[in-house]
């Protein structure tokens, strides 16, 4: 089969690799009909995620048709259309039983590696390094899905791939980011980052009762999408200091909640951004937390900080004194996708949202290297790339 394989920083190739096989009775084999390039994939593309190996298959946003099932998978049959959460979860452990699917105890076969870095291991992830299990990803023609009996969501007739594809990651990620804000009617929410997750965070904040959403970015087409598609008030941080602007827009109080939908590769215009670039270049710092610093300093006293943006290691110059003295509440983490699959599918079916609004580019699988380049460099007004195997 063809698959998108990693060979180093800024080097992905479409290659012919062996077809996956059923390895466990709870596995299913999926013929992929749609897959996508995620902002998290760019962290791998840029070389910031450790334990990648040459030839690793990328991709964690995919869906398709069941073509084979293991002997213990009783709720799926050949021909079912399914979406597959990017987090791999067993469904039986302490954490899965508490609806904390992304920190499953049993799905990362390389848990010892994660424990050394993090103290405990999160769940395994598709196509996201050997630190998270070394699972082959879904930017391919076929994929093996472990724990398919709890991981795959069957899609009813009448919905297109593009309407449901983002249930695999970015729609639940944006929704959980908004849910973590503990939004009350009338609240103002500020979202740093208007990439696909940021767009869904804006939409979700309104779904959950926010009165105002303020969106911060520097890319004109992203700001335009946030304003026109998501009804946010927008700020271009290259034109005005976002922290001061948001405070002014909220009467000096600050927003009730702030969402960092940027993560480890934030850009900025202040001296702290240059500081981060230098330290990151010489490997004295793993992440660039420019957005996170702004979020902490901007959020109102007693407010909520939600972090769906991916962080990979060790951050510097975080204003914890401000966070402590302002009494901020932090919630973050990989998305518990399984928790949101059915509720968000219902929202799609009811016409509350059509997640396909974020798609700007549809490419063949063979064009994936081009897709990575335009997505990374924001060329051709690229916001979201869907690949068709």
Q: How many helix segments?
A: 13
Query: Which segments are poorly predicted (pLDDT under 50) over 5 or more consecutive residues?
Result: none
Helical residue percent band: 25-40%
What Rg is obtained from the alpha carbons, in whole angstroms? Answer: 20 Å
Roughly what is the average pLDDT, rounded to an integer? 96
Classify the beta-strand content into a percent band.
15-25%
**Number of beta-strand segments:** 17
Assign the structural class, choosing from mainly alpha, mainly beta, alpha/beta, alpha+beta, or little secondary structure: alpha/beta
Main β-sheet: number of strands, strand sense, barrel status? 7 strands, mixed
Can you tell me about this structure?
The model has no long low-confidence stretch (mean pLDDT 96). 29% of the residues lie in helices and 21% in strands. The strands form four sheets. Strands 3, 4, 5, 8, 9, 16 and 17 form a seven-stranded mixed sheet that branches. By secondary structure, the chain is α/β, with parallel strands linked by helices. Helix 13 links the parallel strand 16 and strand 17. Helix 5 crosses helix 12 and helix 8 runs parallel beside helix 10. The radius of gyration is 20 Å and the shape is globular. It comes from Microseira wollei NIES-4236. It holds the Pfam family ADH_zinc_N. This is Alcohol dehydrogenase. Belongs to the zinc-containing alcohol dehydrogenase family. Keywords: Metal-binding, Oxidoreductase, Zinc.
